[in-house]
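Issue 218. Parser rejects a valid record. Input:
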Amino acid sequence: MIYGSCIGSFLNVVIYRLPEGKSLISPGSRCPSCDHGLAWYDNLPVLGWLLLRGKCRYCKAPISIQYPIVEALTGLMFVGLFYVYYMTLLRPDFFRCGFGVTWPIFILHCLLLAGLFASTVIDAKLFIIPRSIPWFLTIAAVIILPTAVWYDIAYRPNWQLFNHKLVPIARPHGITSAAGGLIGLAISILLLKLKLIPLSFADYEQAYKAHLDELGDEGDENAWFHYPRARGEILKEVLFLSLPVLGFGIGFALAPTGNALWPAWVFVLGGVAMGYLMGAALIWLTRILGTLAFGKEAMGLGDVHLLAAIGAIIGPGETIPVFFIAPFFGLAAALAIFGLGRIMKKRFQPIPYGPYLAGATVIVMIFREPIMTRLEPIMKIFDILFLA
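Output the parser choked on:
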C-alpha cells in the first residue's frame, strides 16, 4: 500500500506535467499557486494532504483533492493485484509459483496498472494519451520479461516462468513474423521522417480551429471534432502500414521449419513483439475501417499505442478479449452519461476510448483463466501459427 501510494504521488506529477510537456524530474514539487517549493513532509502520500488540511502551507490556496485520491487509489490497486495474484486462485500460475519467483512480472503488471491509471485520467480530461506512457511500458516489457526468464532458466531448475507461461511466448513463425513487421515499421518511420511518405492529419490544429469558427456559439455542444477530409488522410496511414504488413508476411515465409534451438529469452522477446503488433493492429484496423466507413476519424493513435503496450506486457492472445470487452465499458458509460443528462438536464462530454481499454485490461488481468479458456476454440489456430 505504501509503495503504491508513493507511485501514485509520482503519477500526480505525470498527470499534471506530461500533457504540458514539462519535465517530470525538475523542478521539484511546488505549489501551483505561489510556486513555492514543497518540503518532503508536505509530499507524504495522502498524509501530506490531510496534515495540510487541503491547503498550501505558504499561500493557503486549496490543493485539489485529486492528489490524495490518486495516491490512495494507486496503493489500493497494487494491494488488490497482489491479493488476486497470490492469495486467490484467479491467477493459479502466480499462486503456485509464488512471489519469490514471479516478482519481476508482478512489478511489470503494477507498472501497467499505473500507466493505465495515468492515461485514463489524462485522456478523460484532455482527450489525449501522451505517447511517452505506452512507450515507457513497452520498453519496460522488452527489458523485464526476457531478463526475468533468462535469470529463471539460468539459476532455477524448474523454469517456472517459462513453463507456466507467465510471460508471452511465441513460436518460431511468430518470432520471424514479428521481426519482419518491426523492420517494416522502422522503415516506414524512417521514410516518414524523411518526408518520403506523407504524414496523416498533418494540419489537424488548423482544421480544428476552422471547425470551431464554423460552429460559433454551438462549439461547446459539439465537443467531438470531425476532420473534413478524414478518408483521404486515413489512406496515408494505409500506405504507412503497407511495409510493416509486407515485412510481417516475409518474416512468416522465412520462418525455420522444425524446432528452433534459440535461447528461451528469444521466444519471450518474440512474444512481446507479437503482443505489441497485435495490440496496435487491432485498434489501427478499427481506426482505418471506421474512418473509411463514416468519413470521420475513428479512435486516436494514442489508443493504438496504448493497446500495443498492453499487448507487449500481457501477451498477444490477451489483447483480443481486451479489444472486445472495451466496447461494453463504452456502452455502460454512454448509458450512464445519457441517464445523468436526462436527470440533470445537462449535456455531458463523452468519454474517450482510452479509459475503456484500461478497464478491459484490468478485467483480463484478473479473470484471464476463465476468459482465455472460453476463447480457446478461437485461439487454437492463432496459437498453432504464432504462439507456444
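Fixed in the parser; the record now loads. The chain is about 70% helix and 0% strand.
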